[in-house]
Amino acid sequence: MAASNPVKGGRGGRRDRRARLGPAGHYLALAPFLVFVSVFLLYPTVVVVMGAFQDNGGHPTLSNLRAVTGSVYADAFVRSIELSAVTALVGAVLGALLSWAIAAAKPEGLVRRLVLAGCGVLAQFGGVTLAFAFIATVGVTGLATNLLRELFAIEPPRGGAWLFDMPGLMVVYTYFQIPLMVLVFLPAVEGLRPQWHEAVQSLGGSTWRYWRHVGGPVLSPAFLGATLLLFANAFSAYGTAAALVSQGSPIVPLQIRAFMTSEVITGQQNLGKALGLGMIVVVALFMGLYALLQRRTARWLR
Prior knowledge:
Number of strands: 0
Radius of gyration: 25 Å
CATH architecture: Orthogonal Bundle
Number of domains: 1
Order of helices and strands: HHHHHHHHHHHHH
Number of helices: 13
CATH superfamily: MetI-like
Shape: globular
CATH topology: MetI-like fold
Distance between the termini: 48 Å
């Protein structure tokens, strides 16, 4: 009896084609992504790093780095770190509580789906659109501001001008930090197995002991990693601050904008690149710590 021929085009055929492609075919498939990363990430990074160590004539110098450590620019870094740290901590705590509430809801429930859909949208709702929404709501002539004045005779702090200073930036940044925390931290919360809580209860332990000795230690790497991610997200944000703060440059991204676009500050673009190099170093440090914590978190999510 003649042996039957294998069916072509099935799973075996696909595996054979992938085997024939070999490593070269895999790298070829990644080519569009590598080109995108090279053009929009690697090349700008190289330009910023090289420009930070050059003067206006293109000669090597360290004067830009020395200037960045001066009082004005150092203060901008301090304010940026304060803004990022406060919004990251507030967003992490509130987002973690919201994640716990979502995890306790029905897996296919309407509330869970609505909250997750809203978090997915609000986490990306930033820039000029978010700034306009806050200005129209709680700004100097915003809807909520006018209602407080007319209905309750309450004057908002500084007549609503607080929104355009550091306190306003903290409130607006926290608005998109909370949903981002939910999206990042929820998988870790859902990774907690009910059997662990049941085991603690069967041994006579309380809920407090469960969270202290089991739930807390398991979730702490994921919580810290998500907090670091929120810090990097706030530290590198630009559009919202640029739309709200029209006078002065209290944070580093706005300082860089002044060097690149201002007609008053000319011929000092490389100083702005030195500021950009400082931001790259800070973000790389925090994202490196985030990657290390994610490795530890992945052990409990398998």
